[in-house]
Design brief:
This protein is α/β, with parallel strands linked by helices. 38% of the residues lie in helices and 16% in strands. It is globular and about 60 Å long. It has a 7-stranded mixed beta sheet with strand order 7-13-12-11-8-9-10.
Length: 467
């Protein structure tokens, strides 16, 4: 963990994080400097989470500035509100007269093992079944805890992963540095970048006040990073079409992340659905996906097929642990990567807690989401000048690496909930009930953030582009 002078203020730390995060995309330093920073306040953590949050939002904003300059010849500025950026790393929705579903399955959580700790991620029914199948217990928290105590952490992690479940043993930062996957991540750039063949024509005709109006974004992502990315793109007018399998749901976050989007369902195992998806992809400008490395390939939509179907596609993707190394195909989520990479262990040790102490928000997910959005916008700027397709790939583990490598600061003050002034005065008529949304975390000169659609249920729209 790098350490900077303790007198360094929060803006300097945020600038340092912005430079670190932007390196993988080679965003111009002059553009980064046109992002102003305002506001104050910190999320409680042993890490500089609020600096990290403001920096990630700042990088996405800088990429929008780059696109505006490339397409319109203007040189605008942006201003990131540190406090609002931190809040947008949590929940941005306040229901009016209804209640959000629980974020976590009752079995999900941290459990003591014979030699340490492990986290089980069981929000998806098949992931819960995989963990319970290994432990040979029913879906009862006490029974699971008793069974877990009879295992060593890494042995149980391996058994659950091999059973197609999701789990992560808690490791220290030093142990992650020595781990084969940790070593791979540490030696890679934060993004793998590629350029593909000549771009085909697009129906996208941007205007400076709504620069992404008409941009067709095909969203194949789940909780939480990918949906954060496409939510940011929707704020500038992008036509985001999210595609989910027939049986997928994530009720605790759908009202949070479907803002500005249309949501459809397709079973890509079926020939008719693959035909529909092929047509959607042929007419897309951007594809954002979070499938494991081999999943789209197995469905007939590998990288070469995507390039052939849509020349000039902006193809941006993420996974949990990186695109190379022994864990390149491992399922994972923010809470698991925090356990693997030493973040939860550091919180426990530094604050002398009795159990894993993760970040106060799922900051790896959110930071990765804003960086994915930055990659899309940077790719669009590149395509405008080079007339070629653009590919970019990153991972939650790379976000963890940036947090560990960046400036460090502890904040112990309790979290201050959003004030009435930080909520939008407008009522959002979501599919779940009326709600208020936090004010946007950034302002861009001449280009307001505005979502044209309220949050929607999965499967509420047909799998087709807007007319």
């Amino acid at each position: 963990m790098a350490t900077l002078d303790s007198t360094q203020d929060e803006k300097s730390r945020t600038r340092a994080f912005m430079t670190l995060l932007a390196e993988g995309l080679a965003l111009p330093q002059a553009t980064l400097e046109r992002v102003e920073l305002a506001g104050s306040g910190d999320l409680p953590s042993v890490f500089a989470v609020s600096d990290f949050a403001a920096a990630a939002v700042g990088c996405a904003s800088a990429a929008m500035l780059e696109l505006l300059e490339t397409r319109f010849g203007v040189v605008p500025c942006a201003c990131v509100d540190r406090r609002l950026a931190s809040l947008w790393f949590g929940m941005t929705l306040r229901p009016e007269g209804w209640t959000l579903p629980p974020m976590w399955d009752p079995i999900a959580g941290n459990y003591a093992t014979r030699d340490g700790w492990i986290r089980l991620h069981t929000n998806a029914p098949h992931h819960r079944d995989a963990a319970l199948g290994v432990l040979r217990v029913r879906a009862d928290k006490a029974a699971v805890a008793d069974a877990v105590r009879r295992w060593d952490a890494e042995a149980l992690e391996t058994a659950i992963v091999e059973n197609k479940g999701c789990a992560a043993a808690m490791r220290s930062i030093d142990a992650w540095k020595q781990h084969p996957q940790g070593r791979v991540v540490a030696t890679q750039p934060s993004f793998a970048i590629g350029r593909t063949g000549a771009a085909a024509d697009s129906t996208w005709t941007p205007a400076i006040e709504r620069p992404l109006q008409g941009l067709r974004v095909l969203d194949l992502t789940r909780v939480l990073a990918g949906p954060v990315a496409t939510r940011f793109l929707a704020a500038f007018g992008a036509d985001v079409l999210r595609i989910d399998p027939p049986d997928w749901d994530e009720p605790g976050v759908i009202p949070e992340v479907t803002l500005g989007k249309r949501c459809a369902r397709l079973d890509l195992r079926q020939p008719a659905a693959r035909s529909t998806f092929t047509d959607l992809l042929r007419n897309a400008d951007v594809l954002v996906h979070g499938y494991r490395r081999d999943a789209l390939e197995n469905l007939g939509f590998g990288a070469e097929a995507r390039c052939a179907l849509r020349p000039g596609l902006i193809d941006v993707s993420l996974d949990a642990y990186g695109w190379e190394g022994p864990w390149r195909n491992r399922r994972g989520f923010d809470s698991l990567v925090q356990m693997s990479a030493g973040i939860a262990d550091a919180g426990m040790r530094i604050w002398r807690r009795q159990e894993p102490t993760p970040l106060p928000v799922q900051a790896l997910d959110h930071a990765t989401g804003y960086m994915l959005a930055a990659a899309v916008l940077h790719g669009l700027a590149q395509r405008a000048t080079q007339e070629r397709g653009f590919e970019a790939r990153t991972s939650l583990a790379h976000a963890a690496q940036a947090l560990l490598d960046g400036p460090q600061a502890q904040h112990t003050a309790p979290f201050v909930p959003p004030t009435d002034a930080e909520w939008s005065s407008a009522l959002e008529d979501t599919d779940f009930g009326p709600a208020r949304r936090l004010k946007p975390p950034v302002t861009v000169d001449g280009t307001p953030l505005r979502w044209d659609r309220p949050a929607a249920r999965l499967g509420s729209s047909p799998p087709a582009w807007s007319a």
